[in-house]
């Protein structure tokens, strides 16, 4: 994490991308335990197939957690003011998730200088899986 200032950042700047290991069953099981989300579509192959899926798939909140890592590798978590996402695609087993972000606005609010970011996860095929926005104070 670097110490950025408002004046250091320009609209259009990008955050250093975060690329994760391919999603695997161990990651899904560990995330289920850590999050308390034991929905069977994420951990039970037979159940996922009965639901019409080819296999289990990643929790949407796992991808949001990855985006949280992207943000907190760029600024201290205490600087985060807003963080929201939409789930636009399924992250399947074997997908290599890359998190990216881009500065889209600079402004002042509540006596702070802030930047707005567009953030997303995409798989190795460039397909967005989660898209969102974040606001950080600089």
Summarize the structure.
The chain is α+β, with helices and mostly antiparallel strands and 138 residues long. 23% of the residues lie in helices and 31% in strands. The chain has helices at 25-35, 45-50, 60-74; strands at residues 18-19, 80-87, 98-109, 112-122, 128-137.
Please name the defining characteristics of this protein.
MaoC-like_dom; HotDog_dom_sf; 138 residues; alpha+beta; Thiol Ester Dehydrase, Chain A
Task: Tell the overall outline.
Answer: elongated
Any idea how many domains?
A: 1
Widest sheet, order of strands: 1-3-4-5-2
**Radius of gyration over C-alpha positions, nearest whole angstrom:** 17 Å
Number of strands: 5
- How big a fraction of the residues is strand? 25-35%
Please outline the major beta sheet: 5 strands, antiparallel
The CATH architecture assignment turns out to be Roll
Query: CATH homologous superfamily name?
Result: Hotdog Thioesterase
Structural class, by secondary structure, is: alpha+beta
Which segments are poorly predicted (pLDDT under 50) over 5 or more consecutive residues? Answer: none
Distance between the termini: 13 Å
Per CATH, the class reads: Alpha Beta
Q: What series of H and E elements makes up the topology?
A: EHHHEEEE
* Helical content band: 10-25%
Which fold name corresponds to the CATH topology?
Thiol Ester Dehydrase, Chain A
Q: Quote the average pLDDT.
A: 97
Tally of DSSP helical segments: 3
Protein name: MaoC family dehydratase
Organism: Paraburkholderia largidicola
């Amino acid at each position: 994490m670097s110490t950025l200032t408002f004046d250091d950042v320009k609209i259009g700047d990008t955050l250093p991308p975060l690329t994760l290991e391919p999603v695997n069953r161990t990651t899904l099981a560990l995330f289920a335990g850590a999050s308390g989300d034991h929905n069977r579509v994420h951990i039970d192959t037979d159940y996922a197939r009965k639901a019409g899926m080819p296999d289990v798939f990643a929790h949407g909140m796992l991808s949001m957690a990855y985006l949280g890592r992207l943000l907190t590798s760029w600024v201290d978590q205490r600087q985060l003011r807003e963080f929201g996402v939409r789930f636009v695609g399924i992250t399947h087993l074997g997908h290599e998730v890359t998190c990216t972000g881009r500065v889209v606005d600079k402004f002042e609010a509540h006596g702070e200088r802030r930047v707005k970011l567009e953030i997303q996860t995409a798989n190795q095929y460039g397909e967005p899986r989660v898209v969102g926005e974040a606001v950080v104070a600089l």
